[in-house]
Amino acid sequence: MSTVLQELQTTARGLYAEALQAAQRDASTGGGGDHGGGGKGTGSRERQLFDARDYKIPDLPAAPSMAVFKKWRHDFELFLETIGSSWKGVTAVLRASRLYEQTFEKDQLGEVEALSAKHEPKAPTLDYSFDFDLKTDALYKLLMPRLPVALATEFRQVGQTNGFELYRRLVQKLDPPRADASFHLSNEIRGL
Question: Does the structure show a pLDDT above 90 at 167?
Answer without folding.
Answer: yes
